Amino acid sequence: MPLVSTTEMFKKAYHGGYAVGAFNVNNMEIVQGITEACQEQKAPVILQVSKGARAYANHTYLIKMVEAAVIECPDIPIALHLDHGNSFELCKDCIDGGFSSVMFDGSAMPYEENVKIAKMVADYAHAHGVVVEAELGQLAGVEDDVCAEEHSYTDPAVVQDFVEKTGVDSLAIAIGTSHGAYKFKPGQKPQLRFDILEEVSRRLPEFPIVLHGSSSVPQDMVAKVNKYGGAMPDAIGIPEEMLREAAKGAVCKINIDSDIRLAITAAVREHFALHPADFDPRQYLKPARQAVKDMVSHKLVDVLGCNGKA
Ligand code: G3H
Ligand code: 13P
Ligand code: ZN
Question: pLDDT tens, 217-258?
């Protein structure tokens, strides 16, 4: 099966009461860990590449690794998506360069500018068979090294106008999730604005909604990182049952990156602590890749509900 767009995936997810996982990829072990889990679980998957990932690993290397995964995992649909594209030029570059989906993130821009560029991206993408995600509202947390302290929740009153004017195919909304490993303060009760999600889906029937910042920051992994010399005090994520709930409704795509980083870091730290003489990267990258695979398998089955849906 060649690289696919997310159109079919989202249609099935919307009506099937589950969400597709969108996992960030930055190197070979991450691509392999994610796609091996999805192949085993027969789950559709979105591999997403940020501007930072392209700067780190290079567009060509990333696309060739994803193409290799498509060959190695013939039973599952795989989409390749640009995560948080912040300009028309970046989106165009990825469309021209073989991506099947792009996000234009104009959430920090004034509304009219967000509309204008999202429409330009959608027009160009659609002419090339590529789908587009856009964003309204702003997440708190760290993104491309920029840290926003406060959420700016999505205003449901404008979502219809935005989708009609731009023609985008899916919409990321801000309901209290945030980027990074520190989503809530210690002692703070994790909460998401399900009322906003409901109102957005009422105003946009059958329209796929996206949740960014949806890592759950598993506490056993945080404990392992800290046990083996790390310093991640008070790392807290989104409770899994809240994501499961969101996935049952209009949320068709759930973005996860920090949990992959955590899985790798915990595995590598443990390996170094237990095997201090090892210096062949394969010795510690193998358990790291396995940790990504285990973590993704768990998400597919227990959080997203997309296992068996390929
Ligand atoms: O939302 C941001 C993703 O976690 C990607 O992060 O820009 O550091 O690659 P990055
Ligand atoms: P996390 O930091 O919660 O993994 O979110 C990732 C994300 O939203 C990528 O776009
Ligand atoms: Zn994001």
Answer: 999 999 999 999 999 999 999 999 999 999 999 999 999 999
C-alpha–C-alpha distance, residues 310 and 301, integer Å? 13
Pairing outcome for strands 170-173 and 131-136: parallel
Q: Residue 170: CB within 6 Å of ligand 2?
A: no
pLDDT per residue over 98-151, tens digit each?
Answer: 999 999 999 999 999 999 999 999 999 999 999 999 999 999 876 665 566 678
Between CA 143 and CA 163 the distance in angstroms is 24
End-to-end CA distance of the chain: 11
The DSSP annotation for 44-72 comes to: -EEEEEEHHHHHHH-HHHHHHHHHHHHHH
Ligand closest to 179 (CA) is 2
Q: Ligand 1, from 51, 62, 83: best to mutate by most atoms within 8 Å of Cβ? A: 83
